[in-house]
Amino acid sequence: MREDVCLLTAVDQAAAVRSGELSAVELVRAHLERIDRLNPAVNAIVTLTAERALAEAKAADERVARGERPGPLHGLPVAHKDLHLTAGIRTTFGSPVFADHVPGHDDLVVERLRAAGAITIGKTNTPEFGAGSHTFNPVFGVTRNPYDRTRTAGGSSGGAAAALACCLQPIADGSDMGGSLRNPASFCNVVGLRPSPGRVPSWPSPLGFSRLGVQGPMARTVEDTALALSVLAGPDDRSPIALGEPGSTFRPPLGRDLTGLRVAWSPDLGGRVAVEPEVLEVLTPAVKVFEDLGCAVAEDCPDFTGADEVFRTLRAWQFAHAHGALVDTRPEEVKPSLRHNVEQGRALSGSDVARAEALATELYHRIREFFTRYDVLLLPVCQVLPFDVSLEYPRVVAGVEQPDYLGWMGACYLVSAAGTPALSVPAGFTASGLPVGLQIVGPHRADLRVLQAGHAFEQATGYGRRRPDLTDRTQPRESPL
């Protein structure tokens, strides 16, 4: 089977399998051959289940031959984020404590992808417990950026983003608390959607009412991302915040005339975040594309007062709940930044958490009012370019010292605190060839509008069609991380 089928969009791959032009076995085998050839250079897929995947693909082909109707993802190979539970397949969370952990059931996102016909081929790399937006851990090491392997692929869905950029899989699942779907998408020139809380239900989840962390899709195109969302979205009574709209709402095509769309552009969230000049050099002309599409564009920004406190307080509180026992019993096996997060959470009072919830409510209403005047908001995804893999995080952004390893991610995590859907879409490259993503934010629960705006931008620019050159087999220097 020709390996170039891996370069097709997910929509086209699925259509080829449904039509009989390709079998599921042929498609999976082509991706496994590409993984074998290219994955060692980037370390995106860290657990591979090749024999199981081929057996699943063969069984899928046999079901179709018997006359069963194929699902929308029939035959598409998917490696799941190593934070997501996979029955019978090692799930490590990037932690040595769980290096040999094999769950007995699937997370709901994995369950839904598989029910739609996707074939599990393995797991993608993530930072330890998904903490931080640079993908490295003591179990599998660092994931490298396909466009420059001396630099980070971002995180925490960094393995997924790098695998997509290298065409090792057509779609991916990920998760996002402070930017973990959006940051790596921007760094790797792919698409990542942080859906509205409840759009993609989470189960099992010990904090089922939490709105801060969400699961969602990634892909190489906006329509492929929407295809994945159409499977992942929809109600489930195991999630107390699940939204009721069916996933079919998001099924491609996404074409929409944007004439008259009211667009706000904020290069730095009203001065709340520092952004490297090279990032803005790419994004500023990209914004004009919306004017050319007939949109009314104005520089404006919602009032994000309190958003930083909301995010940091609720995140620390959740980390203390989720990881406190492990820090107590095996502190030497938990990275320092994670231990610090737990300590911060334990120092909070009930009044601190209540204040954060009150601020979140006030923020919700300011954002709601802002979107009575605008239809979408544009801003940077990342405040920096992909940085050196030897760094845990950038300590200075545009000459401004960052307080900690969260500081450089404000353009994403302030949006997380607001609870709105947000899309990272490829927006161009620097002179040195590094990708830059544009963040498109919509009103609460307006996921379809965000996807439609991103699709129109993508079709007008074509930046996402530029794939990395992986012909250089020179091994980059080792990272000290």
UniProtKB/TrEMBL annotation:
One Pfam family per UniProt: Amidase
GO terms for MF: catalytic activity
Biased composition (Basic and acidic residues): 466-481
Residue span of region Disordered: 462-481
InterPro entries per the UniProt record, alphabetical: Amidase, Amidase_CS, Amidase_dom, AS_sf
Protein name (database record): Amidase
Species of the source: Prauserella muralis
